[in-house]
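Good morning,

Attaching, inline, the backbone tokens for the sequence recovery test we're adding to the shared suite. The designed sequence is right after.
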């Protein structure tokens, strides 16, 4: 096997990736380049640079990818009104192809032979990272330590860190009850009491949102302006994609919006229970569907709804760079040309209610036809008789056949 000389590691500076950094050097006798992505997780990333330097890393990449994350990954996904298994807004799934893309980019830039990640052999993320890498660089070597080493518990990781004098901020015997992943779209929780599907999540677990029953007694109203299916302004103020999502997270969380408790089907075959906070995404999805209800042709809207579960599965399973996802995206984006206008939503104690929608140039809603008052000849109600009789023809034929058999 070809010797590995340099590896690009997806690095957070936490226990797992700090141990991985040292383990890679020991196991492969290679140089390690670290890559840390700021995708809105809300953490100070400079400590990761300091830790990497202390461990002798020469090439350190810390990149602010917040705008690219929302603009090129989250927004295209929301144009499809994407939900996995009817509930999950894919906050973790959609971040992985972006991180994988930069792992490959940095490998190309630094002349690295391989990339490495800290995803376990039980989860979906290993699939997402590696499918991305192979789609973008077919010959890349991927190292997944959790599938190779025998450091199978937190205690073993801590022992390894102590033995090798790895700077870790964890205290002995103190364990975070949840495995968490955060970015601008969501924060996820796994482990702890969540491993029992019958147990209700502890209120202290949630970070972004107040409990709906403790949300303000007065509703909040927000107007979202859409252009070609993307939200470009809030309450008339133009904002960048990342700024839109951050603002919606704040107001949504304050109103108890966006909590989900799900048992989902992982791609690797097991069921997993996770809890999610996605306040901004929950508002965005509701508003986008409302905008489409006014501006999309009926059959186009219905076709999108039929294809959405397949599109969602492609993202969940790691196929962002697959030809079928790219083909679907072309179709979805083409449908969004007329999705322009403003949606007004009311946020109240965990609920998002659409209370208004308008489109000056692309609305297909014709009040002169839809009215219950005098439509002044805009619609001939007698036409409905022939329409109904034609559509009933096959039903009548089938009923007559049943009558003959009796």
């Amino acid at each position: 096997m070809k010797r590995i000389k340099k590896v690009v590691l997806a690095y957070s500076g936490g226990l797992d990736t700090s141990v991985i950094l040292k383990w890679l050097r020991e196991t492969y006798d290679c140089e390690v380049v670290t890559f840390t992505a700021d995708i809105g997780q809300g953490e100070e990333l400079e400590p990761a640079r300091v830790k990497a330097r202390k461990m002798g890393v020469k090439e350190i990449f810390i990149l602010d990818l917040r705008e690219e994350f929302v603009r090129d990954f989250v927004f295209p996904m929301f144009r499809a009104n994407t939900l996995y298994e009817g509930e999950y807004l894919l906050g973790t799934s959609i971040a992985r192809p972006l991180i994988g893309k930069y792992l490959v980019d940095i490998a190309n830039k630094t002349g690295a032979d391989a990339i490495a990640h800290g995803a376990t052999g039980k989860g979906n993320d290993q699939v997402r990272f590696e499918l991305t890498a192979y789609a973008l660089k077919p010959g890349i070597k991927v190292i997944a330590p959790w599938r190779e080493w025998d450091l199978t518990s937190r205690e073993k990781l801590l022992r390894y860190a102590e033995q090798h004098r790895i700077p870790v901020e964890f205290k002995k015997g103190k364990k975070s009850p949840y495995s968490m992943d955060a970015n601008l779209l969501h924060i996820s929780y796994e482990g702890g009491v969540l491993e029992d599907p019958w147990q209700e999540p502890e209120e202290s677990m949630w970070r972004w949102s107040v409990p709906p029953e403790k949300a303000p007694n007065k509703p909040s109203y927000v107007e979202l302006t859409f252009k070609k299916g993307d939200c470009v302004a809030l309450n008339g103020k133009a904002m960048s994609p990342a700024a839109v999502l951050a603002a919606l997270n704040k107001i949504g969380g304050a109103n108890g919006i966006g909590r989900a408790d799900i048992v989902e089907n992982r791609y690797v075959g097991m069921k997993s229970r996770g809890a999610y906070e996605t306040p901004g995404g929950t508002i965005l999805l509701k508003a986008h569907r409302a905008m489409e209800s006014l501006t999309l042709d009926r059959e186009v809207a219905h076709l999108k709804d039929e294809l959405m579960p397949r599109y969602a599965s492609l993202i969940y399973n790691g196929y962002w760079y697959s030809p079928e996802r790219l083909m679907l995206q072309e179709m979805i984006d083409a449908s969004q040309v007329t999705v322009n206008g403003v949606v007004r939503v009311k946020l109240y104690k965990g609920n998002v209610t659409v209370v208004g929608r308008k489109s000056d140039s692309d609305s297909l809603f014709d009040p002169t036809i839809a009215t219950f008052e005098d439509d002044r000849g805009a619609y001939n109600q007698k036409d409905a008789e022939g329409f109904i009789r034609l559509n009933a023809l096959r039903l009548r034929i089938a009923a007559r056949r049943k009558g003959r058999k009796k």
